[in-house]
Amino acid sequence: MLVRILLISVLVAVVTFLTFPYWASCNLKYETCLAICDVRHFNADIDKAACKGGCTTKKIACLTEQVLEPSSSRK
C-alpha cells in the first residue's frame, strides 16, 4: 500500500513538472525560476545574478507572448 502511494505521488510530481510551462502563469514561472537560481548558485553571486537576469528575460518574453496572443487570434 505504501509503495502504491509513493508511486502515485512520484507520477503526479513528474506530470506536474512536465506540464508546468503550459499551465503556470508568468509570475509563478518567474518566482520558480528565482527560487531555482537561489538553490543552484547559493555561493556564487555573479552566477546567481546572471541566472536571475535570465529569469527576468523569460518573464518579459512570457508577458509579451500573452499580450500578443489575443491580437493574433483576431486576424
Describe the structure.
With 75 residues, the chain is mostly helical. It has one domain. 88% of the residues lie in helices and 0% in strands. It has 3 helices and no strands. Helix 2 packs antiparallel against helix 3. The longest helix is centred in the C-terminal third of the chain and has 29 residues, at 45-73. It is flat. The protein starts with a helix and ends with a helix.
Topology:
Blueprint: H1 2-23, H2 26-40, H3 45-73
Helix pairs in contact: 2-3
Order of secondary-structure elements: HHH
Number of helices in the DSSP assignment:
3
Q: What class do helices, strands and sheet pairing give?
A: mainly alpha
> Low-confidence spans: pLDDT under 50, at least 5 residues?
none
- What value does the Rg take, in angstroms? 17 Å
**Whole-number tally of structural domains:** 1
Overall average pLDDT: 88
Broad shape: flat
Strand count: 0
Helix percentage: over 70%
From the N-terminal CA to the C-terminal CA, the straight-line distance is 54 Å
Reported for the largest beta sheet, the result is: none
Fraction in beta strands: under 5%
Keywords summarizing the entry:
mainly alpha; 3 helices; 0% strand; flat; 75 residues
Summarize this entry quickly.
The protein has 75 residues and is mainly α. Helix content is 88%, strand content 0%. The chain has one domain.
